[in-house]
Amino acid sequence: xxxxxxxxxxxxxxxxxxxxxxxxxxxxxxxxxxxxxxxxxxxxxxxxxxxxxxxxxxxxxxxxxxxxxxxxxxxxxxxxxxxxxxxxxxxxxxxxxxxxxxxxxxxxxxxxxxxxxxxxxxxxxxxxxxxxxxxxxxxxxxxxxxxxxxxxxxxxxxxxxxxxxxxxxxxxxxxxxxxxxxxxxxxxxxxxxxxxxxxxxxxxxxxxxxxxxxxxxxxxxxxxxxxxxxxxxxxxxxxxxxxxxxxxxxx
Length: 251
What we know:
The chain has a single domain, classed as TIM Barrel (Alpha-Beta Barrel). Helices cover about 50% and strands about 15% of the residues. It has helices spanning about 10-15, 25-35, 55-65, 80-90, 115-130, 140-150, 160-165, 170-190, 205-210, 220-230, 230-245, 245-250; strands at about 5-10, 40-45, 70-75, 95, 135-140, 155-160, 190-195, 215-220. Helix 2 (about 25-35) packs parallel to helix 3 (about 55-65) and helix 10 (about 220-230) packs across helix 11. The model has no long low-confidence stretch (mean pLDDT about 95).
């Protein structure tokens, strides 16, 4: 059992943007991550460009396409008109629809699919017509997997923040069960499964073992934090090990 690792480079960009200098290099560290075996890169551009800039989107796309054919590029964000235009121009392998508010510090909830069914159906159809796989960000609630199927998305990404951020064992167990139930509901609905937010080397293996249908995890904060200790290449190796990806390669 394994899941593929997509490295979210937002935190690297956020650190870069604290100064008017080009380092740390988002492209350079993204390249190191891919050289170390990461399956892909994820970016989440926001309107204020406080981390990923619009210019980063094309630079990373070109690097992946030229140097790492077969690896994946995932762009996530709130599908407002500017975001739709950006994604349509970049043509990533996957777009993940996230219901962010403009001033939101980080993603902290999934879609109310029933309330936005028409909008999500239209956006999904538009991106899929361009050959882009569509994933939708959902809370760990099993019924949402079936609603996501109805709007036509290819995958759901479960918001794992409550599980990953739980420090008390009973709370962690409760949230773990919610994520697993939602992941199994996605399999039953016939759609692919991704997950992301506050996932770490410590809490990943159990999740991967419980959900054999988990295809991809998108991780940024924990990878960036661990890279300060281990370096990016070794951190990617450790996270791939936590995902079961290195063992599957050896087999």
